[in-house]
Amino acid sequence: MAKGLRIASWAVAIAIVALCDGGFLAFAVMTIAEESGSSAASFMAETVVQGIAPVMWVLIPLLQLASVVLGAVAAASRRPAALVTCRSIMLFFKVGLIPFFLCGAVVELLFIVLGLHPVLPFVGWAMGAAVGVMGWLTMFSGSIWAIATAVHLYRQRIASGGELAAHIVLQLMFVADVVDAVILFVRSKAPAAALRTQSLLR
Questions:
Q1: What is the DSSP letter of 156?
Q2: Least C-beta-crowded within 10 Å: which of 45, 113, 139, 168?
Q3: pLDDT band at 113 (very low <50, low <70, confident <90, very high)
Q4: Most distant CA atoms of the chain, gap in Å
Q5: pLDDT score for 43
Q6: What region does 5 belong to: left with phi over 0, alpha with psi -120 to 50, or beta?
């Protein structure tokens, strides 16, 4: 990958992880503030909500789209050294977003319970579906880098076509994507180290 694309890819990845994890943290603080009953705390919570909403619904999806595009470009790159960047960003996404997905799982569970309520079942299921879609899109913005890593392993004949297909399918599923990313990271360790050594010798 060109240096500019590499820098842009890292900037987008860091922004997504920071905003997703930070958004849930701000939401938790806001909820506690509202429950305190203080008018000042409620005002602060309302201000936080007004500030978070545009970020959650506009900026993050744009960054996720940018990540998918950059990941696809990285996968298409014929430079073997692109593997080093792909595997690093992949691991950063999968580990960095763990707090986001743990909180998201709790929220999803609460919406499922609300969906079982006899009076407001539609609200719970609709909100649960919205949170699920948001979570999947967030997951895929990191999964594209795992897929790019698998593509480079296939191109270097380290992974077979069947393995590549399996990695792609696993990267589309919650939880399985993290396990698969760890496998890809381990499998790409030796070729990535060799590529780093080659770049140092040049």
A1: T
A2: 113
A3: confident
A4: 69
A5: 66
A6: alpha
Q: How confident is the model at residue 125 (pLDDT cuts 50, 70, 90)?
A: confident
Q: φ, ψ for residue 77 (rounded to 5)?
A: -65, 135
Q: pTM of the entire structure?
A: 0.88
Rg (CA), the chain: 20
How remote is the C-alpha of 39 from its chain's centroid?
A: 36
Long-range contact pairs involving 27-36 (C-beta distance under 8 Å, separation at least 24):
27/52, 28/103
Tokens read off for 65: 């789209």
Residue ranges of alpha helices (H) inside the chain are 3-35, 39-54, 60-76, 82-96, 98-115, 121-155, 161-170, 176-187, 189-201
Q: Which residues contact 41 (CB under 8 A, 6 or more apart)?
A: 33, 34
Q: Is 125 exposed, middle or buried (0-12, 13-18, 19+ CB in 10 A)?
A: middle
What distances in angstroms separate CA 171 from CA 51, 54, 62, 72, 163, one per listed residue? 32, 28, 21, 14, 12
Residue 76 to residues 80, 86, 97, Cα–Cα distance (Å): 11, 11, 25
Phi, psi torsion values for 42, nearest 5 degrees: -65, -40
Tell me which amino acid residue 91 is. L
